[in-house]
Amino acid sequence: MAFPLARATIEDAFLAACRAELSALKPGNVHVHGAGHGMDTEHFERAARAAAPFIVDSTRSVGARILGAVGASVAATGLNTNLGIVLLAAPLAAAADARAGADDLRARLAAVLDALDRSDADQAFRAIVIANPAGLGRVADGDVAGPPSMTLKEAMALAADRDRIARAYITVFDDVFSFALPELQAARRAAANESMAITALHMSLLASFPDSHIARKHGADVAAAVQQEARALEPLWRPAPNADTWPPLARLDASLKARGLNPGTTADFVVATLFAEMLIHRSATTERS
Question: Diameter of the chain by CA atoms?
Fold first, then answer.
């Protein structure tokens, strides 16, 4: 594999992942087939374009990438559209452009996460405050409202039992590499097109893990109920949806939006999975930068 990747290659992969995620029906989320939660695809496209230069800036630490990307995204949209995407994408980009490291993306990512320090925590905390995600409460240790007393990885460890993105930082993105990437590959073998495969990935994630965004905003019981709804429809989306199974998934999309239930963390992991897959693919086909 040809790591490190050039800035332009990583930026292309990030923007492509964001656009691909928007192209697919993802029940409860914003996509080209339906707006929701006061947002449409243009909000997410503007946010991705605003965030990209910071995500791929190899002169910045992970925390600085997060802070710059979130600040630019909120300025461009007036909304928190992509905090979770940025929190997952920034370490992946840093792994892909690190000047030294293994040829394996996940091994490079482990080194990036292990090197996170208090400065990364301070900047990530400031980004989270700027984004002001729904359902953000206060905790005794590692609270984003105060100065950090620990590294970013240590802070994420404290939240890992209640937040799937935090858990990613201490498991080296296990949900992406061990679960979502194989699910995406299996869906692609059965799907008529890439968007259908991404729908299958979204539903698989939604059925497998309670969505952290829903749990923060509406409680763990509601998140678990949505997970069960996705599981109940598994025959319609596994291994991939098709024209005949599309209408019930569209009805779930409309129902979740009508109830104000946005599985935003699930969508964040869809983007992160697509981004990781594209980085791996480009590393295998691109000359060293």
Answer: 53
CATH of domain 7-285: 1.10.4200.10
Backbone angles phi, psi at 136, to 5 degrees: -75, 120
pLDDT tens-digit series, residues 135-171: 444 444 445 555 678 999 999 999 999 999 999 999 9
Closest CA relative to residue 1, chosen from 272, 285, 289: 285
- Map tokens 């029906």 to a residue: 25
> Rounded to an integer, what distance in angstroms lies between the CA atom of residue 190 and that of residue 211?
26
Counting Cβ atoms within 10 Å, is residue 258 exposed (0-12), middle (13-18) or buried (19+)?
exposed
Q: Is 46 helix (H, G, I), strand (E, B) or coil?
A: helix
> Who contacts 31 (Cβ-Cβ below 8 Å, separation ≥6)?
21, 22, 23, 24, 25, 41
